[in-house]
Design brief:
With 477 residues, the chain is an alpha/beta fold. It catalyses: (2R)-3-phosphoglycerate + NAD(+) = 3-phosphooxypyruvate + NADH + H(+); (R)-2-hydroxyglutarate + NAD(+) = 2-oxoglutarate + NADH + H(+).
Length: 477
Amino acid sequence: MNSALDATEGIDIEPPSTDLARRVSSSLGVSTSPTGFHTPSWTKSGSPLRAATGGLAKHLKPFATEDIKILLLENVNVTGQGLLEAQGYQVTHLKSALPEDELIGKIRDVHVIGIRSKTKLTARVLREAKNLIVVGCFCIGTNQVDTQYAAEHGIAVFNSPFSNSRSVAELVIAEIISLARQLGDRSNELHKGTWNKVSNGCWEIRGKTLGIIGYGHIGSQLSVLAEAFGMTVIYYDAVNLMALGTAKQVPTLEALLRAADFVTCHVPELPETNNLISRKEMGDMKDGSYLINASRGSVIDIPALIDAMRSGKLAGAALDVYPAEPGGNGDYFTNELNSWAQDLRSLKNIILTPHIGGSTEEAQSAIGIEVSTALIRYVNEGTTLGAVNMPEVSLRSLTMDEPNHVRVIYIHRNIPGVLRGVNAILGNHNVDKQMTDSRGEVAYLMADISGVNVAVIKDLYQRLEGLSSRIMTRVLY
């Protein structure tokens, strides 16, 4: 990369002594500079990268990149790890989730934590994370994080809602075919040496009706794939959504259940989706139909499913998610985890997979890139685009033509009079850009100020910290 972008050539404040610099970096919550990351607004124009305004893009930079500590759990994809390590951060990565007490011990001094679906960031855990500024969920859901508590304490939460949609959709197609042909049972039998060539109860999926509950990114992709196999697709969603292909939306869940040969669930975990498919709903389904769940474990009443399978009401089922799931790999799917586990495992023509809907190399790599990039933007630039619990705020990148700038981030309670107090502090300086937005009880303000030095930075930080509305103050430069 052109040397004009090197941190050593982009110092934009009067540099204090090294000791003072490190103290300022730590005491002000100052974030670190990217060494290989560029915002989407930059375009290639010859050999150095340029900001959208035409000037050379300038990195926001504190003094000690290595001060930022990151903890990655649950075997986060190496692509994501690599992006974070390239920033110069201290990155620790572990293969599994941690029990709550052990997690509390690990999280106390980290600034960033990356998790997948097994780690539970409860209020008790987050309360101990005194330095934490951001959480990255390397998965679709964020229900494993107390996002409200995080927002109220200035901790942004990012996820990857779309990157594994295709992987989940393809898994469901594979399960539909496998259930229709009883492939799981035939495979298990032959592994045991039993040759059982039968056609009774085995079907083509062409001409059958697929009912999709939840027509979001996964459901709509599944719809297209199913039509390519010759299936008729109907779907039910809480809101009216445009159909892809020849799929048709039905007005009620009951209408979908009565018409579909295969029913598949793709809904979030919400109070209204808890046991969405229970005894009554299974009674509404066609005799000999199939049920698939690759959404959340609470969506299906599994004891009711066991009874429906044993009675012959359902001809097959596939589950990728469960109400309680082990924290790591091993022989843990037992009655000690879920009281019905043994009964579930004993059923015929049921596919049980260990929450692998998004577990493909492509999906995990895409998730790693998406979430790590969001974390880098937030740490380095304060950008909240894509955050699930914060207002979405972003300012254009500073350029090399804008020396002696500082970016102030003030996360505060959304109450009257805050901007008056903040602007009284910022008003003595040249505010080049400012943006603020609120989300519920939390508001997020970002401002770029020119003509600053370390003394000014420290004064701004201390005065903002003294405001009663303050949740968290960050200063980036």
